[in-house]
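Hey, can you fold this one?
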Amino acid sequence: MEQKIIENRYEFVILFDVENGNPNGDPDAGNMPRIDAETGLGIVTDVCIKRKIRNYIQLSKHDAPPNKIFIKEILNDKLEEAYVAVGVEKKTKKAEDIQKAQKFMCENYYDVRAFGAVMSTGDTPCGVVRGPIQINFAKSIDPVSTQEITITRMAITNRKDAEKGETEMGKKSYVPYGLYKAEGFISAKLAQDVTSFSETDLDLFWKAIINMFEHDRSAARGKMILRKLIVFKHDSVLGNAPSHLLLERVKIKKINEDVPPRAYTDYEVFIDSSNMPAGVTVDEKI
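Sure. Predicted structure:
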């Protein structure tokens, strides 16, 4: 059954928080939580957010077509799979052959349809696909306090160290609390012209965002919760209003400016839905 390709432009806002955890470690800073060095605001990269979305889809759809996940393990093996499936020889220079392989990748890999991919490597290139969904870095509403504590390890690695009678020491980096906001964009035009991202795919995308932390628990990440998913829907392919005018309607205010935030209830979140541009509706999915 042929899926209906999306016909509406969307913008969306994701609000999530972290409690006593490291939402996105920075390898350039000893895996401390990422921050903006000038403002002290916490950062979670778009790559980190999309990884959690991919992981949920892989888990829920069993990594089976048409919802396989491309960005994992050895990429060129998957590109070679596309060539075999469509009967194209390796190292082809024919644009139509590469296009056939690219179409196979879009049809079988969810993250290629959604986010696009660079698939121009190796002997079986499938070109570059520009996906309809883009997500910005998430930033915390207020500066976060990055902390590092010393932890001890009672289970010694080997007998030699155990005979020394010394307890192994380690470090754990975390943020006591941070409320983060990410903004995203969905282009129906790119979906129609490039990847055939469908209404069914879109429903799965919203579900993946809502559940992206539920199967991603770890001691390092602490307690992470998706608090809000707010979606602005245009009644046209190209849209009815500039995206920033819609995204700015999500208002977040700290209730007590004199107290460091330590819980979601320390904030007030509301949507200014008055005088919405014609042809735009807002849907608070959570």
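The chain has a mean pLDDT of 93. Let me know if you want another pass with a different chain boundary.
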